[in-house]
From TrEMBL:
UniProt-recorded name of the protein: CENPV protein
Molecular function GO terms recorded: carbon-sulfur lyase activity; metal ion binding
Record has Transmembrane helix as a keyword: no
Highest rank taxon of the organism: Eukaryota
Keywords in alphabetical order: Metal-binding, Zinc
Species of provenance: Grantiella picta
Family note: Belongs to the Gfa family.
């Protein structure tokens, strides 16, 4: 258990992939405009790997990469939903899709736009994004 955090549970549409994540009840979600995030409407919040646990479905995940191949876009083989992934900005953590969380644990969502079309510049100028995956 993590002080000041709540345990959220969630997963994909068909239920083959399930996870738990410890995070604030008040989520800080990124809305990125890079090519892939725009196409799949990938809004996400970032957590350290130590606060994420895959409960089931490891064998039902597949991964898509492109460009630098640092971001690992994992999704369910059955329903195609990406409920979490490994972001390029935080390869030591996870980006969690808030809309894939089960009801009842999220109090508020604050959304921040990030200019992924100019990824290097946006991430280097952002004051906190790289630290979000640190325990």
């Amino acid at each position: 258990e993590y002080r000041g955090l709540v345990k959220h549970t969630g997963g994909c549409h068909c239920g083959a992939v399930r996870f738990e994540v410890w995070a604030s009840a008040d989520l800080h979600v990124f809305n990125c405009n890079c090519s892939i995030c725009t196409k799949k409407q990938n809004r996400h919040f970032i957590v350290p790997a130590s606060r994420f646990k895959l409960l089931k479905g490891a064998d039902n995940l597949t991964t898509y990469t492109f460009n630098t191949h640092r971001a690992q876009h994992t999704f369910c083989k059955t329903c195609g939903v990406q409920s979490f992934y490994t972001p390029r900005s935080n390869p030591d953590g996870y980006g969690i899709a808030p809309h894939c969380l089960d009801d009842g644990t999220v109090q508020t969502i604050t959304t921040e736009d990030i200019n992924g079309k100019e990824w290097e510049k946006a991430v280097s100028e952002h004051k906190t994004i790289r630290d979000m995956s640190k325990p």
